[in-house]
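Q: Hi! First time asking for a complex rather than a single chain. Here are the components, and I think there are two in total. Is that enough to go on?
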Amino acid sequence: MKLSELGEFALITLVRNITNKSKDLQQASWQQLLVGIGDDAAAWQGDNYIQLATTDSLVQGIHFDLNNTTWEELGWKALAVNLSDIAAMGGTPKYALISLALPGELETENISQFCHSIASLAAEFGVAIAGGNITTSPNIVITVTVLGNSKTKSVLRRSTATPGEQVAVTGPLGLSAAGLKMFKENISLDTQTTSILRRAHLQPVPRIREGQILAQHGVKTAIDISDGLIADLGHICEASKVGAKIEMEQVPTHPLVKANFPNYHELALYGGEDYELLFTADKSIIDQAKQALDCPIAIIGDIVEETLPDRVTLLDTKGNIIPTKKGGWEHFRSEIPKAKFA
Amino acid sequence: MKLSELGEFALITLVRNITNKSKDLQQASWQQLLVGIGDDAAAWQGDNYIQLATTDSLVQGIHFDLNNTTWEELGWKALAVNLSDIAAMGGTPKYALISLALPGELETENISQFCHSIASLAAEFGVAIAGGNITTSPNIVITVTVLGNSKTKSVLRRSTATPGEQVAVTGPLGLSAAGLKMFKENISLDTQTTSILRRAHLQPVPRIREGQILAQHGVKTAIDISDGLIADLGHICEASKVGAKIEMEQVPTHPLVKANFPNYHELALYGGEDYELLFTADKSIIDQAKQALDCPIAIIGDIVEETLPDRVTLLDTKGNIIPTKKGGWEHFRSEIPKAKFA
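A: Yes, that's all I need. Here is the structure of the assembled complex.
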């Protein structure tokens, strides 16, 4: 069977199953591993802290197009998507390793711009760029690894959602997908809107502080929205063996998306790459966390007992079910490999 | 200027200079960073141990050719080259993250073989595969990150060689380059020799235990031989601001390389990818370490005061200088991008 038939998520399961066969609880590394393959970041018990590690790649032609992405934006995004994974664990990023696979015909000046930008985002979050690797490659592949830690005794996971909890999100959705749509379809918008959409898609701001505050207030379950709200909530439901009911009208959608894109619901539900945090907790915990946070928290639904085959149920204001699309980004399977939405 | 004109090492310097501008000693991450960009692995002060992190990529068409590499061998090598970097710091590998950028037309079975092999090498060294990333890509790029630690208070570095020290290596050289030459030139050798050369090139064994023993016995300076003996010794000399004199006849060359390849000196000196440890220390330290090691230690020369422009001087048995080639692997610049030797 080809990977394109198997799909990304089945492939992750296959990698996990095979590598877990080498699990050996006689070994300190396995004993101390708290979160292995299948969450936003790996976590293991360090001496005083929980250690976190995550890695993410940007591939030319799949994740970015140099015709509508500057090297500064690429540097920012390559680090930001990894910082977002640390945010989704409630952690603090500390060190980054940068692996660059680059064609020899690239201009040195572009790599300088890339480095200045990645260094400036790193500085903003107190991250030291500690190492990496450079190699020739026919196609650009940028892989960043971020190491961090967690001060709280527990990290935010995907597998801890419980029926009765509310589902919430840290900010409005759809802006990044709208930016991508604008690029792909050459949609002409006013300068300010263009700039906001571009920034949302190419220079997302990781919710580091927000993730830490959620963890401090007792939230146990979170994921960052990279594949799309419905898909990422599906990841939580699958890992937690629960279901979720979402009220579509409660899903916060950015006003600029509503104003300029008739399919704004689709962009908010399936778009992805917003890098907002999607989390679940009891109402009282969310209420307390809300007061400590600067960002707008929207309650969008509830965790329920497991529902199969569709783990996530989308409802209109009258409680009628709206069929969900097999949405969200899945590598190898997506029909439009450069789009993050169906 | 294009990267192909700048070359890999100047590019690493550029990345280091730019990212070091964001250095902020108010930040704990920078305060605790012991070894940044430019060594085999990054190192920082953890609570009880020194933490190590390294990353290395294998790019299809640059580092491997699927016509003469199985997926098992690829899995092994992808992890082994990273473990070797931890060995070169004298550390213990603990966790690995695996990033796979893969074309959708690949067979799932091949990725299974890859995972079984990487898991088996990981198990051999007590490494837990803790996470990673999977993405679509037009060309295969495998990036592995290994995290480890060091029990000794000091880690092996490139920048600590001192005039008066001896230069030594943990085993015979040239076997991996001979294996690559055999593949590239379709050289026909007997079955056993073919198998040994193939294994040396595609399934190198990282010198983890040896690196730890060297560090325990007071060795301060080491590198693993990936670019080639002369090139890697040049990296030590450059980082340490010293020179080195090597006696060519003292360089240990594998008997199978001597027997089958008339240019065996070239393969041993410039071939690379042997993943033996090249280290420097006072004679008394090397003598003590030798007794604790199972592998054959060869003394091949001495560290001297800095000599420029050629940091490494190669001598014949009469003390005459043999001109060194601008040898060793350098990404972007190498004329034969798939070969590790000139």
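A: The longest helix of chain A spans residues 71-87. Let me know if you'd like any chain examined more closely.
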